[in-house]
Amino acid sequence: MRYIAKWYARDVFTQKGNMGMLKEQLEHSQNVPPERRIRRMLRTNVAQKDYYEQTSAGNISPVNSAATNFWNILRHRAMVSVSSEARSKVYEVHKQWLGDLSDKKVLELGAGSGCPISGYIAEHAKEYHAMDLSAMQLEQLKNRIGDAPNRRFIEGDFLDSSMTDDDYDVIYAHAVLHHFRYIDVALSMLKQKMKADARVISYDASQTWLPVVLLRAVFRPFQVDADWEFPFTGKTLKRIEASFRIEDKLGVFNKGKWSLVLGVLFPSLGKKYGDKLFLSDFEDRKRKNVIGSLHVSYLMKEQ
Fold this sequence. Notes:
Radius of gyration: 19 Å
Distance between the termini: 43 Å
Structural class: alpha/beta
Helix content: 40-55%
Largest sheet: 7 strands, mixed
Oligomer: single chain
Strand order of the largest sheet: 3-2-1-4-5-7-6
Strand content: 15-25%
């Protein structure tokens, strides 16, 4: 056990490896041809589509395994410690990154049933495209934000380049990039869809904090959606930062992750101190180090 802990710690804190946690993550190797990577993810996305036609991410559902439902219960219990008002701080930053959308064509990638600012983007963009694998999720989004002449709802796979245009000013990818087994393929596809000087805003789960690495390693064999869930490792973050010019980045639940720990173990203390811990990450924006954060958000442009 001491050897295992030492092995994980080495990879997390030096970021020289891929943390050894997931065999699947190691398949980012150049030994896997790009065509094979795409074919494998396309097959996986058929199962992913079927899953999201039946339930939504994070929900307690009979579609899930008992372990997945238990994980979701713990996550919900933890998140209660941070108020929705405090969590909205993330989306205030995203709105700043989005800027004036009145003359912009925007793709919301993996839109699902919508994120907290889907309606804002659709209302302010000159043209708004929402793409998701699931028709059911898109229908929920349409019901939520409404339809309009400047809005297009695309049921399809982002890996099929014929499904989307090639001239987006902004691609908003909320909790979606970590669904790609091979992140390099996703990054390449993003570049194909961007106009010159376009921007990408991403927001994803990350696992660069040792306790989360170990916890996910235990949970992984029982996880229903394991085939399309790859929270960012240190190596993934390096790949992203090497592929794009990073205009800004935000580590969410860095110091704030302790609010989630309190929420699970001591709910009353979590509610008392949760917002303060969460918001402390926004008071330290100059630090820019996202390692150890449970969520990572990027504002990116092509190099």
